[in-house]
From TrEMBL:
It comes from Marivibrio halodurans. Belongs to the universal stress protein A family. Signal peptide: none annotated. This is Universal stress protein. The lineage of its organism: Bacteria, Pseudomonadati, Pseudomonadota, Alphaproteobacteria, Rhodospirillales. Residues 1-147 form the UspA domain.
Length: 147
């Protein structure tokens, strides 16, 4: 039924649970699993920028992000690893999360996207985070929202 499953992770417990669901689905359907995280370019205060420049750490804008992004993907891969038969690839993109996820789905013909209902935000009143709300509305594939 599904051949290409995408799981979008932001490091939150919800998104890591969605990796477990996605990897089990990938195993059942014989699908490939892509774990995608969208990194936001960091906004630095002028003082912090000065510090990074003086330490020559500003060469690439992604320098500050990388360790964090890597951590998110490592954790996600660990959760997916219990399913040894599943082929897992990881992708890092930069930009606005919901739009970037939807563009990736369209561009690479993802059949099914698996995401958490909530993420790292702390808006307890909302049932769905803004990224899960937008992706379920705008993605042109089946979307599974993991609670
Ligand atoms: N930067 C991201 N990269 C990849 N997936 C993401 C990203 N942000 C969110 N997601 C996915 O969307 C799910 C829901 O997160 P979302 O950001 O919508 O909730 P939230 O952080 O609680 O709310 P908000 O961001 O609106 O304050 C996550 O569990 C994850 O699957
Ligand atoms: Mg969020």
């Amino acid at each position: 039924m599904f051949k290409k499953i995408l799981c979008a992770v932001d490091g939150s417990e919800h998104s890591l649970r969605s990796v477990e669901v996605a990897s089990e689905m990938a195993e059942k359907f014989g699908a490939t699993l892509t774990i995608l995280t969208v990194a936001k370019p960091m906004k630095l205060s002028p003082k912090l920028k000065e510090f990074f420049q003086s330490e020559s750490l500003m060469g690439e804008a992604t320098y500050v992000l990388e360790p964090m992004t890597e951590g998110v993907l490592d954790e996600a891969k660990k959760r997916a690893k219990s399913r040894e038969t599943v082929r897992v690839e990881t992708v890092v993109l930069e930009g606005q999360p919901a739009r970037t996820i939807c563009d990736y789905i369209k561009r690479t013909k993802v059949d099914c996207a698996v995401i958490g209902s909530r993420g790292l935000g702390d808006l307890e009143a909302a049932l769905l985070g803004s990224v899960s709300h937008k992706v379920t509305s705008l993605a042109d594939c089946t979307v599974v929202v993991v609670k």
